[in-house]
Structure formats: C-alpha cells, structure tokens
Design goal:
This protein is of the alpha/beta class. The chain has helices at residues 10-31, 76-89, 103-111, 127-132, 134-142, 149-166, 175-193; strands spanning 38-48, 51-60, 65-71, 96-99, 118-120. Helix content is 50%, strand content 18%.
Length: 194
C-alpha cells in the first residue's frame, strides 16, 4: 500500500483481512488441483486467549494443508469432527491416513468404518505433518498469540489456502518450472482478489 502512496493503519488492514480473507481463501481453494489421497493428521497444543487449545491439522503427502480445526479437547469427538470435515470437503477419498499414536484417531476411524486405511505413524512416518506445524508457530509468534478460538480458526484457514498457493518446493524443480509455477500462483492470486 505504501508503494502506491496509500497510508493506512494496521487496524484498517486487520478489518479488511477479517472481511475479505475468508472469501479470498475460498476462491483460492476452488482453483487448486485435487490433493494427494495420502493424508497425515496431527494435533498440536496452542495457547489461545490464555486457554489451552488443540489445533487439529491434516496435510497430504506433498505438504498441502487440507484442513485446520481448533478444538478445546483432544478426544475422539474432536478427531471425528476433523475426519468428517475432511471427507466432506476434499474432492478425493483417502487411500491411507497416517497419524501419531493417539488412540482417538483409531476410535474415530472405527466409527467411520475407515480403520483399514489407518497407519499409526512410527518414527519418521508422520514427519510430513510435524514439519508443517512450523509455519503456524511462526505465524503465532508474529501475531503474539491468538486471542480467541474463532479468530485463530479464521486466520489459520485463510493462511492455509494462501500458503498452499505460494508454497513451491524450490529444491525439487528446475528454474524454468519454478518461474512457471510462480506465475501460476500470481495468476491465481490475481483472480482470487479481483
């Protein structure tokens, strides 16, 4: 904004983000390719508004964030809610679901008759999602913690869609391919904010 000669306050940007962020994220999600059918699920503890909350996350085996859910509890109901959301919103059915050793995942998958897809992660099998917690921890520090469960949910789901659009694994591709993928991401962003 400053480059365009427009002087705005942080509060104006925050209000615009709250108003237009979910809409932009929804448009970006519609333009994405279908994710991989190999899913990784995990939960991480966050302090939100001085209360201990659990951030339930799902990523595919390529690192794309499938869904984020902020819950107060770390139990079967919370795992079941995440799995139901995933099954409803994702365009592909899972082939495998890798989790950590938490028994709530097994119980939730039993209720959905998907136990045959479950792979409880041992050692490094669930590293994909453990490493994908890092951008969230960075975002949490920048915002000096989240203030409420609703604002954390809104912020993290919006950030996940934007992260999926612009996260290009540079070390795996050539420079011309990287330039093409960056141009595609910029085009998708321009279409989403238009």
């Amino acid at each position: 904004m400053a480059a365009r000669g427009v002087d705005v306050s942080y509060e104006t940007i925050r209000c615009r983000t709250i108003k237009f962020g979910p809409l932009i994220a929804r448009r970006l999600r519609k333009k994405r390719w279908p994710p991989s059918p190999r899913w990784h699920l995990d939960e991480v503890v966050c302090n939100i508004g001085g209360k201990r909350m659990f951030l339930w996350r799902a990523v595919d085996d390529e690192g794309e964030v499938l869904d984020v859910l902020v819950q107060r509890w770390r139990d079967t109901e919370a795992a079941l809610k995440l799995l139901k959301r995933l099954l409803q919103t994702q365009p592909v059915d899972p082939q495998t679901i890798t989790t950590d050793g938490l028994a709530s995942y097994g119980a939730a998958l039993d209720q959905l008759n998907l136990r045959h897809l479950h792979r409880p992660g041992r050692l490094r099998e669930n590293n994909r999602i453990e490493n994908s917690h890092l951008p969230i921890r960075r975002r949490e520090r920048q915002q000096q913690r989240f203030k409420s469960q609703a604002s954390a949910q809104r912020s993290l789901t919006t950030h996940a869609a934007i992260y999926n659009t612009f996260n290009i694994q540079r070390h795996l591709i050539s420079r011309p391919t990287l330039r093409r993928l960056r141009a595609d991401a910029a085009t998708a962003w321009a279409a989403a904010v238009a």
